[in-house]
Amino acid sequence: MTRLVVYALASRGAALDPAVRTALEGLREHAARLVVVTSTSVSDADRADLRRLADRVQVGSGDAFRAEFYSIALADESVDDFDEILFTGDSWFGPVGEFAPVLERMSAEDADFWRMVENGHGPLREFPRQGFPRQTWPWSWVMVRRTAVASAPWVEFWSSRGAATDDSDSEQLFVAALEAAGLRGGYAFTTADFPDEHPAIFSAELLMDAGCPIVDRSIFGLYPPFLQQHAIVGREIVGALEKHGYPLSSFWPTLARTVPPKALNTNAGMLEILPMGGGADPTWAPRIVVIAYVSDVTLAPELREKLDNLPAGYDLVITTNDGVKARYLREFWWDAPSPSFASLEVRVTPAGGGRDMSDFFVACRDVILSDRYDLIVKVHARRKRGKTVNLRRYFRRYQWENLLDSPEHVAGILRLFETEPGLGLVFPPMIHIGYSTMGRGWSVYRDAAAELLEEMRVTVPQDLVSPLAPYGAMWVARPAALRSLAARGWTYRDYRGPANRDLARVQERIVVSVAAQDGFHSRTVLTRSHAGISHTALEFKADEMLATTTGYPVDQIALMHRAGPTGRGGIVGLSRMYLRLNHPVISRAVLPPMALAERVFMSTQRARRTAVESLRGWRVRPTRGGRR
Q1: 0.70 exceeded by the pTM?
Q2: Alpha carbon 196 to chain centroid, angstroms
Q3: pLDDT at position 627, please?
């Protein structure tokens, strides 16, 4: 059959994500004519690339996908010249296997139109409050025969309803219009052959095994607790994709740009417990540089011991803000019995804000932007003020051991970079023992982070509660994944002063998103020992926190989010939660003035305490004559 394929782009990020290219190359051989329709936000350069893959590139209206994209594309095509017209878009990964067997099988079916996978479940549950609203995707797969093209419903839909329908429901409404006119529809894969009513989401692996050539892309962007409620394991779906021959080099960059990083890390199970055996391929010898900020020289022996687990021959750049320390560190490292590094450079940097982050992006910018290295290991040894001995020791162990625990552990990290060319950063998961970061990872830096991301034109969706980030600012990374951030030309002045004193913490929270904008994904790693410590602690805390609510965690979390912050607890906090849950209209009117009054009251109390303490200090202050 002669086919016209109309492929629409959602334009949620870069137009030519690798998955788009892979899909168009797979469709090309089955299309007599291939038309791609994009939004106005797609750049001229991207359209030029698309023209090399398609017969025609049409620009639709608006800056994102709309249902009328398809009618706009059809306006300049002679639809009567084709036996079939396929309406589809970048809402799936494929081809997984081959398109040909399904196309040949369905060509023999006596149907006026057909779709790839039946959905008897209906729309999935939405979670807008949690940052996962319902998204509008291009149509998944609607193949229409000549008999339907010549029908009145076809003409009526595109002439009147096509441009006016709700874009998120337009595919279903189009199909419903054809069915209402008595046209016969079919499915390549029906729910009767699978154990649930929405196989595209709930049975993706079984679909691939049955020969379905596409996998619904939205699986990996769904609300993680919803997937966990239904035991949908993204890591296993990724494994099935790889088993069936889909190139993961097209998969990871596409999701990195379009899914909130922490949600992707969770949905795809991107935590690695190392070592896993096998080691790194000895044929790959990456050029490694270690950038170490050392302000506490008493930690130098322990740090050197950990760095010795790297393959011998790495370059070492140490930064410190004191000339005496620099001399000591230079002599200490060269005094090692058998140095594992090939070269050593100690750089003395200005003291001030930013600490290890300013030294990294300012003092070592030349190292990051050079082409001399395949991997950068960023570590630091500094005393954490105001922390107990136990907490300082645990933090140090958590960071250093999960990155540099043993030669076998390091080999496992190197193997990840070797087998995944798009892997940008590897670091330990969010630390939660001894710290209260969990649940408030953005802290007070969300607005500053959003402003910086907007300046850098980063369109990667952001996680609502906590970002995926290397809390502690230690990682292993490809230089290319850090260059966009390093190339901004930071200076030490940027890290000083009231307006910029938190720049280091902002950079720490956006480094993953900036890398994702450039197509690099990130993974987290733990040793087996730390995995045991972390998981049992998390399990107990989650068990305790969910003890007062019923249902699945997805419902318990939704309830807590609706109730809102507890504040300082007590009757005031509980009253606010009650109003939010049971009287949302009243809460919107009453709570803002209450919050303002509370802030004024607390400010007054603080001022009063300060005044009293000052007065007491004045009363006991000794005079020059020794009298009080």
Answers
A1: yes
A2: 29
A3: 45
